Structure formats: structure tokens, C-alpha cells
Amino acid sequence: MTFPYQEVELEKDGSVHDRRQVDAALTMLEEEHVGDVLLLVHGWNNDVPAARRMYDRLMTSLEGVRPQVDGAGDLRIGVVGVLWPSIRWADDVAGGGASAAESAAALQADIADRVEDPAAAARLEALVPRLRDSAPARAEYLQVLRALLPPSRTWTTTTPFRRRCAPRLRTPTRPSPWPRAPRTWRTHPWRAAVRPASASAPCSRGRASCSTRSPTTR
User: Fold this and answer.
1) pLDDT digits over 191-210, tens only?
2) DSSP for the chain?
């Protein structure tokens, strides 16, 4: 880190996870005689390593452009990086545990109301209390949920053509809403003008170079 830096972790409800981190940040600001504090907070779906890398890149960029700003070199800047649990059930999260939008009781109630398989529902409810602190429990929870999903229907190259394409072939076709293309003239291979025999306009190239064939369509 190019500037004095201290981290503060928050819980999912916004409270401070460890008060000692706040005290350490205040001590750092006082000892470094910091006059300007830069508070960095990451967004959704950033775990702790990703947030730290982002903070480090930002401070490195600020240090690079600092000489180009008048008076910026005299500023005493300190940085406080806030870390909060922005990823549900991630292995490395801030705040001492995983983030969950609902309480354990509410999640268990949803499982009992929505999951029709009794064995799967019982297993999911048993895993709920361990989701916050156990990565294996979270992995098993997701595995049980995936097993409840209906299998996807996929066609392979060995599937008979009639089974793959018959539903499409049985679908009646609709008339095209677009008008048919008009009849157009086509240039003769030796670039002679082609026009119908009934045309009364004289040929600009002379009678010998014109043909009286009927027009053709593209």
C-alpha cells in the first residue's frame, strides 16, 4: 500500500465486526498525522482478496497522478478500507461469516413451504444453521438444491432426425407479410440490353445490339 492503510470489517447488518479494527484505524490516523481520509468501500460480489486488490490498484493510481496535481504532494492522506460480506456463501468473506439475506428461521420456513421432497427438505433445514460458518455445508446445500431441479432436455447428434425436426416440420407456415419482389431486367452475357418485345422505346445502342427476348426474373 502506498498510503497509510487500515481495514475495518462490517457485519451483514452494517455493525462493526471487531471494534479493535476501528481503534487501530484511529491510531493510524493520529500517528501518521493524517489530514485527509480516503474511505474505500467495495461493491457487490467482491470477496476480501478482490477488494484488497482493487484498493491497492486505486491507491497506486492515485500515487501516480499525485505529482500532476498542484498541492497534492503536501497532503497527508490516510486510507481506510471497508470490507463487508457482499457475496452469499462465499469461502472468504468479511464480517466473520457468510452473508445471508434471511434469518435461519425464515430460510427454514421457506424450505418447508417450497420443497416438496420430504427427505431433501429435512436435509436442507438441517444444513441451514451451518451455512454461515461452514463451506462444506454450503456446498452440500447447493448440491441438494441442484438435485431437485428437473433434468434438462438436450438433443444429441445420435438422436434420430425425425424426433429432432418433426415438431418443426409439423408447424404450419404462415404467408409472408412482405410483397413479392418485382420482375426485373437482367443484363445479357454480352451486355446487350434486354427488354420485352412489346416495348416501344427505341434501343439506345442500335437495332443490331438489342434483343427482343422476354424479361426474366431473378
Assistant:
1) 554 455 544 455 555 554 44
2) --S-EEEEEB-TTS-BS-HHHHHHHHHHHHHTT-SEEEEEE--TT--HHHHHHHHHHHHHHHHHHGGGSTTGGG--EEEEEEE---SBT-SS-STTS-B-SS-HHHHHHHHHHH---HHHHHHHHHHGGGTTT-HHHHHHHHHHHHHHSPPP----TTS-HHHHHHHHHHSPPPPPSSPPPPP-----TT---B--TT--SPPTT-GGG-B-PPP---
